[in-house]
Amino acid sequence: MTGASVPGAGGVGSGGVPVPARVARRPRGRVPVGLVVAWLVVGLVLLWAVVPGLFTAYDPIAGVPAEKLRPPGAGHLFGTDAVGRDVFARVVHGSVHSLSGALVAVGVGLLLGTLLGLLAGAAGGVADAAVMRVVDVLLSVPGLLLALTVIILLGPGTVNVAIAVGIGSVAAFARLARAEVVRVRRTDYVEAAFGSGGRFGAVLWRHVLPNSLGPVVALAALQFGAAILAISTLGFLGYGAEPPTPEWGLLIAEGRNYLATSWWLTTLPGAVVVAVVLAAGRISRSIGRERG
Amino acid sequence: MTRYLLSRAGQAALVLWAAFTASYVLLQLLPGDSILIKFQNPELGLSPQQIAEIRAYYAGASPLADYAHTLLGFLTGSFGYSIDTGTPVVERLAEALPETARLASAAFLLAVVIAVVIAFAASYSSASWLRGALLSVPSLFISVPAFWLGILLIQIFSFRLRLVPVIGGSEVQQLVLPVLTLAVPISAPIAQVLARAIDQVYAQPFVPVIAAKGASRWWILWRHVARNAVLPTLTVAGLTLGELIAGSVVTETVFGRAGIGRLTEQAVNAQDTPVMLAVVVLAAAVFVLVNLLVDVLFPILDPRLKGAAA
Amino acid sequence: MKGSTPMSPSRPLRTVVTLTLVGLLGACGGAGGAAGPAPGGDGTPVQGGTLTYLEHQPPTCLYLPAAGFYPNGGILNQITDKLTWQNPETLEIEPWIATKWEINEDATEYTFHLRDGVTFSDGTKLDADAVAANFDVYGLGDDKLKLPVAEFVNNYERSEVLDPLTLRFHFDKPSPGFLQGTSVIGAGLVSKKTISLPYEQQCQLKNIVGSGPFTLKNQIVDKEVDLVARKDYNWAPPSSKHQGRAYLDEIKIIVTPEDNVRVGALTSGQADMVRYVQAYDEQTVKDAGFTIYAEPTRGVNNGLYLRPGNSLIKDVNVRTALRLGTNAKEIVDTLFTASYPVATSVLSHLAQGYVDLSKELVYDPAKANALLDQAGWVNGADGVRVKDGKRLQLGVFVSGPQPLSKQTLELVAQQWTKLGVKLEIRPADAGTQAVDIKDAEKTAIQHGMVGRADQDVIKSHFHSKNRDVILSDDKKLDRLLEEESAEPDVSRRNAKVAEIQRYVIEQGYAIPLFEEPQVYGAAPYVRGVAFEAVARPWFYSVWKARQ
């Protein structure tokens, strides 16, 4: 879920104790095959989102009822669903919905969270304490519960679901951003910038923000995968995109009922989601290692 | 030390109150209408006028008085009545809580076991490909949608192989698959933190020295990793609590268990605000308490932090 | 002990032997009803055993008039009895708790004579007083206790207890549907104590005390209901072959929301019977050697109901065009099975007063397009028709209780794309749905059906004071429905129902799709499965054969 834990990105413990980033063991100079594959997966999926027509000729919305529930084969790479739509076409055309949903979710979390964290870390004192208590409150309510409440509040729909998921990740971003800012602030050059009469805002913008961003970007990549999963879980609980939108989460959630008879309906879109989430995690780790 | 504890407890209480107030306000804003959802059943043949009367019956005097009343109720352990079923919310929570507690605690234990096995196996394996493979297992674990995993597990282990029944069967049999479903995603962050702690131990300058003195690999791992890994693991464990609760919503729905998760799902569906409020506050309370406990344990487990805490 | 082979010559002897054995055991155990049916391998019912029955959803409020919801009915049908029994095959009303009855000519007075010796499970008598207390609430409601009026009682005035076993109901207008109304699931009889409880408490299963063949043993809210047979039950409908206590000892009703888990549990032997087998799983169940029961619901068909109050479809020609552009046969062929007959009218062909309108219900996209052209809707840039700057885009909610509602609507949306009409499908979440579904502008179309084996079912569906699915402002429709409801003569009443069906189609209020059944799956050893007239299971006569 959009949980608060920050695996792989060098998170911050609840007592303010930093969890050290992973120590790199790989010798320098070797090509990281996993990372290359991860970027390839993400690149392919991005292409699906931008030019779906290049990858499939089938219509994702209008199927041929007579060709329903065909197993995967030469004609239909991922088979067809109960109303005769090509599942591969639905996955390809669905990528734009799922990716933009996850992007919005991460965007909301990143923006709100980083802003809060930056404010708290830079201002310090009472403001810091106040903001961090707000973050504690956000953190204390499980992401899914928060998301469900927000969805009911905003109403269903792809964007609203994405915002709901994003709000669940605000706390994680805020904590990380604050810790980074506090760390960077203590470095000599920032102290020097302040010392030489730099204005608060300018120093924040020119020195603190860019130097704190690395781990935050790593977390964003990780949350991107988590958001795709969270959106699909909400789809399973009945709060997904509007039909017949071929959103990935919905594809998996709906296909599950056909598991006994038509395994491909849930398994193949599921495999795509797992691959993308894995790739996002791998990329997140590589960013965390380089910059963190 | 006492001052530290008091201030932490005070903060925890403050967070809880804020969580209560925020969710209270949020739930009051809901556009839906639980009364309408419940009473619009056409078989009852209620007129809009009668529904308005029922609504007046449930509504409080003024928003502020209502808030004070609800808050006082929560402080005295009375969470009001479920609009959906008409039963006291406390009763519904009391019925559902043990089921979820069993599921979540068993899942958490299993998650720790899985995490330890993965982390230690990875650090012990000398072949780098095996190590890499083992270390990517946690990433895989958090990349799988939990409901999907649950359904696959049921299909394979219960319906195809017929190893464990999901309907009927003993309490233990009924727990096996849900616990596994819930434990898999929870184990991932714990395994990652553990693996990182092990890496750190190996990076310590003293390791080659004591290894040269003849300390076995296992002994080093056990003696030093245990010390170094326990703190970050505790932290992550405290943080996974939210995921345990979120995961139980999905797991209980898939497996048809009547716990807090299922209660939540139904309350959300019926917009049963008293139940939703109670669930949110309960989740927040558990989260805050566990993390308070972790914070209190920190200085005890790690003497270095004692000074910092005071 | 193995079951005897069907044609075994020694069967009669063996039966006698086992009968004696069981008799002895029964006597030793001190259990009541020792004279129960003999066990046997094939046709002879076996006494005892537990039936595991998987429900799709948990029960909601169990106040009896709200019992139409199938999960509620599945429980209440076992623990309550009714005044009369509607034979599911002939749809005739037969005696049950009422041994006989008289109805005056204009159907304003009903006199019922009750069976002697019937008791509720709390030991109190089921007498005229208790029945009067029940129907006074069902007919008039109770404001103080917040008990609403029941849908199946019309024009109720008062009850009159003539003697402990005789009572008369008075109506201020003719109420010809009342006799059938006494047989429906919502008319289950409960003890005087139960009926005098406030609404919230009557909602809870533990407070429902009936006279049925089973009683509540244990309930885990939202998960499981365990029912146990009443040993002294001896008042089944006289037409039932089985008399005395139920064959089963216990029924475990377990809520299993996941479709694939229900079916998997059935075919892997973890459950005996399940409700709501989806169309695509029927073959799986059959292939595993299990039985599918597709029970008709005999009411208003599963269909799309169009709201004339919506500004885009206030023109009858536009509504007619939508019907002509909907291919119900393709929907059934694609998504459903033979258990779901294509609709040939507004009502199911097994409903009372049904008239065959299949000539009207044809698929004619060319004519549909022509009608839309005439109505001034021109093709827009994105393929959706436009008129006066408005797009022909209609909202509909996915209907939770209807099988494959989402897929059905998606298929309709595909068909309507060819007309240049956009169907906007909204996921079913109770929150926004409760508010928006009453707004014709936001929700132009409703997807639904309603089951009840009486002519009044069409009134329940369409009348502006009942379910009012089309948010009707059509005075003529209301008048026709009221005339139907107050017509004491059966053939004239049926003629009225036929007229209403024609009218509803002419006005383009309905796009009937198919006759919705309730589909159950059961293990081959589950015998004696029976249903009431609207497909709710009746476990009284069910028994489990030896495997």
Automatic annotation (TrEMBL), chain B:
Ranges for domain ABC transmembrane type-1: 97-298
Subcellular localization: Cell membrane
GO BP terms: transmembrane transport
InterPro entries recorded: MetI-like, MetI-like_sf
GO cellular component: plasma membrane
Keywords, comma-separated and alphabetical: Cell membrane, Membrane, Transmembrane, Transmembrane helix, Transport
Family annotation (Pfam families): BPD_transp_1
Bilayer topology annotation: Multi-pass membrane protein
Transmembrane segments: 12-30, 106-127, 133-154, 175-195, 275-298
Family: Belongs to the binding-protein-dependent transport system permease family.
PANTHER family tied to this protein: DIPEPTIDE TRANSPORT SYSTEM PERMEASE PROTEIN DPPB-RELATED
Protein name, per record: Peptide ABC transporter permease
Species lineage: Bacteria, Bacillati, Actinomycetota, Actinomycetes, Streptosporangiales
